[in-house]
Amino acid sequence: MNYLFYPGCALEASSPHYYKSCRLSCEKVGIQLDELEDWTCCGATAYVGTDEVKATAYSARNLALAERAGATDLVTACNACYITLRKSDKFFTNETMRHDASEALQAAGLAYDGTVRVRHIAEVLLNDVGPARIKESITTPLDGLKVACYHGCLLTRPFTDIGDPEQPDIMDRVLAPTGAEMVDFPATAKCCGGMLMTTRREVGLALVYEILSCARAMKADVVAVACPLCSVNLEAYQDAIGQVYDWDRPMPIVLFTQLLALAQGASAEDVGLDQCMIRPEFLMERFA
Amino acid sequence: MASPGVPLSGELVKELERIPDGEKIKQCIQCGTCSASCPTAYAMDYTPRAVIAAMRAGQLEKVLRSDTAWLCASCYSCTVRCPAGIQFTDMMYALKRLGIKHGITPKDDRGQKLMATFVEDVDESGRSSELWLMAKYFMRTGPQAALRDAAFAFNMWRNRRLKLVPERVKAAEQLKAIKRALERRQG
What we know:
Number of helices of chain A: 13
Strand order of the largest sheet of chain A: 2-1-3-4
Strand content of chain B: under 5%
Low-confidence stretches of chain A: none
CATH architecture of the largest domain in chain B: Orthogonal Bundle
Mean pLDDT of chain A: 96
CATH class of the largest domain in chain A: Alpha Beta
Largest sheet of chain B: none
Distance between the termini of chain B: 27 Å
Helix content of chain B: 55-70%
Radius of gyration of chain A: 19 Å
Number of helices of chain B: 11
Low-confidence stretches of chain B: none
Oligomer: heterodimer
Shape of chain B: globular
CATH topology of the largest domain in chain A: Rossmann fold
């Protein structure tokens, strides 16, 4: 089965191991990701703070391309791309916005009729593939591994139709067939701070510390994420957190698709475990 | 100091009319669920609930001079919990736009600078380059932060997670056409 895929800027630059492991784990369950040709930045959570119509038109440009390519679904692996593209699609249901954004798209020779469903790869794996088929693809189970699945904010907020907005369990259900233990993780949908880590460091550090210390309290070996931005915020500032809070034993952060692909027979190198900023040494040895 | 007062309140409501459920901002009952749900409200001068109170009192200019909107991390906790269905996160975005439109600089303008840099990047190349975004942002906010993050950049590079040459897609031309069309319309 083929899906049209929107990687987004972060998968191209800061998270190539996410893109790689996404493709790998999808292939093992019969899914091929075809990259949307000529895609542009979704605008993330920043552009809309400058110009809402332009932000919607820019982002809907990608939806228009997907529509023109005949796709019903456009799949992304980044929570921020997911929410931004979905919001643009929703904004097209407002008459004034649709009119203004359509006029702008027209200048680029494009139109969007609102027929594309924006989806996140975690939800595709859960709902289209399903735990049973995932289970069939598992060859090297992750027995004994304790995983805290961190969903972040934007996977189930503000759109609550794919999972609970407070305690989502999408990733838990995707990864459960790997044989790893999914620990209870009350902080699963707490905010990682997004861009505040850059603009207001002290606020960002407090948010991430809350998430990481919860994972530690639940005795997780590793935190799995489904977003390249959450990933960087959770792994890159643990030293800085240690300077402010009681945090001296770093917690490895991995993409959930890395764990899935490992359980499906891929090696540590295949999934780019060596690109994690805090290396999960125990996994690297086990899947060398 | 110009005091747009009540007009600013009207403008905020108007901004939200362009999005689905935006009009629900008029139905706030001041219950405070938004502020209690917000993970950064403790650092804000005006919590989300207080923003709507200020809007009703014609006092939004004070809010725009504060860091409130720029402390919103866009986590949507307020939005999904609000019993009146108010689109709080979009309200915060609208406040950012109003501040820029009226030339009101918040107390701490780092958020505004980062956003402006991001927008320039996307307008120019069609993509956001994390490395260049940070480099330009640091040039605008002073070297102190750059030094602080040098280790971060090195770590990213060491793990092959830093793209040195920014992507520039040919579709950037289409974005320019979209931009021109909108600018023409806005006069």
